[in-house]
Every structure is written in C-alpha cells, then in structure tokens.
Amino acid sequence: MKIAVLPGDGIGPEIVAEAVKVLNALDEKFELEQAPVGGAGYEASGHPLPDATLALAKAADAVLFGAVGDWKYDALARELRPEQAILGLRKHLQLFANFRPAILYDELASASSLKPEIVAGLDILIIRELNGDIYFGQPRGIRSAPDGLFAGSREGFDTMRYSEPEVRRIAHVAFQAARKRGKRLCSVDKANVLETSQLWKDVMLDVAKEYADVELSHMYVDNAAMQLVKAPKNFDVIVTGNMFGDILSDEAAMLTGSIGMLPSASLDANNKGLYEPSHGSAPDIAGKGVANPLATILSAAMMLRYTFGKTAQAERIENAVKRVLARGLRTPDIWQEGATKVGTRQMGEAVVAALQE
Ligand code: IPM
Ligand code: MG
C-alpha cells in the first residue's frame, strides 16, 4: 500500500500531518512518501507539478493530497499557477470520477445557514466527471474574433465537449454508487440549451437500461442549484459534468455549514485514487495551527474504503471522528458556544486517541 503524500500549500501541510498520524495509528503496512506540489512545487523546481512528484503519484496506489494555492502566485502565467497541479494530476492519472459526499453530522446540525429541518440528516453524494468538459476541451484561447458582430476584437473561447465513452464510464460509476445507497440517481445537465448535455442525457438513459433497480431522473443545472437549497434531502446521488459539478459540489458542501468536514475522492478505472479535503488551502489561517484536519482525516478513510478495500478500517476512522465530535471538540471553523475549542494538532491527536478505544 504505497501512498504518495502531497501536502501542498497554505494549511495543506498542517492538516495532512494529522491524517498521516491517523494512518500510522492503524497498524497497517503503509509506505508513505512525500513530495512538493502546487506553490510548494513551483518553489522547489519551478513547476506546480514537478516531474518527480508526478512520477511518485503515478507509482503510488493512492495519493493523499492537502490543498494548493496562495495569493502570492496569482500573478504567475496560468500554466505555472498552483491549480495546474491538481488539474495535471487528474488528467495524467486519468482520475475521471470525483466523489464528493455532503453529510451533515448530527452534532453540527446548527452550523448550516439553512433551517435545521431542511438539512438535518442530509446525506447526498455528488459524482462529478473530472477529465473532460470545458475544463480540458480544445480549442481554447484568446484570439481576434473571426466573425460576428464583434469580429476583429479580442475574444476568449473555451470548448465544452464530451465523447460518448467518457459519459458512459462516469454513468456506470454513478449507477453503481447509487445502487449501494438509496438507489436514486439524478443526472444534472443543461440539455435544453447545450448539445453536449443532450448527448450526456441520451447516454445516461441508455446506460440506465442496465440498472433497472436504480431510479434515474434528470434535472437542468439551474433548477438543481435551486433544489439543493430548497429541498436538498430529496437528492441521493447526483451525477454531472466537470463544470456543473465544480459549482454544485461547493453549494452542496455549504449546506452542511462545515466545509472543513468534507472529504473527497478522485478515482481512475481501477480504483486508484487521489484523496483530498473539499476545502482549499486557506492561506489566511496557514501556519496558525487552527485549521480543521477532519476533512483530510476523512479523506484518508475514503482511501481505505475505495482504493484499499479496507472498509472496517475506514469505519474505524469515521467512528473515531464522530466520537471526538460527540465529546464537544471543535476547531474554530465549527466551534459554537459550549464546545471545547481545539487546534489542528489537538484535533488530530484526539482522533488518534479515539481510534484506540
Ligand atoms: C475543485 C477546485 C478546482 C476545480 C480548481 C482548484 C482547479 O475548485 O476541486 O473543485 O475547479 O476543479
Ligand atoms: Mg471547485
């Protein structure tokens, strides 16, 4: 079980250190190797995804990823910005299936900005396609507009595209995930306007024939954004493309009021995966020891479940996190009156202690 550990920037190193402690407390034979990525990669060797880091990630069975990005790199050319590291890893490792659960822990029910009755018990899973769409579609660029009313002026353009096999493979992943949960799959598109979405929808309908036990519905993305805040508990599993999934998964994360709690997994066709918290690098609180390590710790649990097939160990970690929350330990992002405020390291150590119980 070889794990590439890529802490990255901002709070990345602090939160990854706690997840590593949790992994090391499990009594399993993990081989961990660390490498710089994002801004740290740029500082180390002039590129956000250094060759050695990519080679390490390729050779590993799984990647534990912290976060990348810092304002100080905002002025760099796009191909050198920290975000390119995560896009590059997704593409090079063919991590096309992104799992983003949004779960509201009972202990944190009042952290949501929505009314408790709308979000209590929330447990939805967004499956986002990660290798295609307007994120990677060619051609793209900035040019002189070749035609139209504004011919000759500067224009930016990107290409939204999905091929049938790309949609088919994410459809299978989504139907199989839905089958293991509430058996309801909602495919989100914009088929009333976009050709890409029409193909997406047609392929979803076709794949559905192989999953008679799963109920498939379709929703336009604008309506899905609305339903997510109106009646989020009506969803079970959502499957959508790269761009819509980027937006809806942030919205879904915020329903829980605690983005610091949400893990994510990005998988290839053989369950190799990259595991990272859903939140970003939070440079404003980096180095202060106050970041919430739980999303990263729960990402390590997802790694045990999806890549290593160690369900019992994954549940051990998840239960340890619940016990720590039940005892009232809270990092500042989820702290409320009456709870015990702890820092990053104390939170990690409390989870390690709870593991042994
Ligand atoms: C995410 C992030 C990334 C994305 C950025 C950092 C490139 O927003 O993982 O959702 O857009 O996919
Ligand atoms: Mg995003």
TrEMBL record:
Chain positions recorded as Mg(2+) binding sites: D222, D246, D250
Signal peptide: none
Pathway as given in its UniProt record: Amino-acid biosynthesis; L-leucine biosynthesis; L-leucine from 3-methyl-2-oxobutanoate: step 3/4
GO MF term list: 3-isopropylmalate dehydrogenase activity; magnesium ion binding; NAD binding
Cofactor comment: Binds 1 Mg(2+) or Mn(2+) ion per subunit.
One GO cellular component, as annotated: cytosol
Subunit structure: Homodimer.
Pfam families, sorted: Iso_dh (PF00180)
Family affiliation: Belongs to the isocitrate and isopropylmalate dehydrogenases family. LeuB type 1 subfamily.
Domain Isopropylmalate dehydrogenase-like: 2-351
Reactions listed under catalytic activity: (2R,3S)-3-isopropylmalate + NAD(+) = 4-methyl-2-oxopentanoate + CO2 + NADH
Residues involved in substrate binding: R90, R100, R128, D222
Annotated positions binding NAD(+): G280, S281, A282, P283, D284, I285, A286, G287, K288, G289, V290, A291, N292
Site (Important for catalysis): Y135, K190
Role summary: Catalyzes the oxidation of 3-carboxy-2-hydroxy-4-methylpentanoate (3-isopropylmalate) to 3-carboxy-4-methyl-2-oxopentanoate. The product decarboxylates to 4-methyl-2 oxopentanoate.
Cofactor: Mn(2+); Mg(2+)
Protein location: Cytoplasm
Name of the protein described by the UniProt record: 3-isopropylmalate dehydrogenase
Keywords attached to this entry: Amino-acid biosynthesis, Branched-chain amino acid biosynthesis, Cytoplasm, Leucine biosynthesis, Magnesium, Manganese, Metal-binding, NAD, Oxidoreductase
The UniProt record lists the keyword Transmembrane helix: no
Recorded coiled-coil stretches: none
Record bears the keyword NAD: yes
Enzyme Commission numbers on file: 1.1.1.85
Biological process (GO), any one: L-leucine biosynthetic process
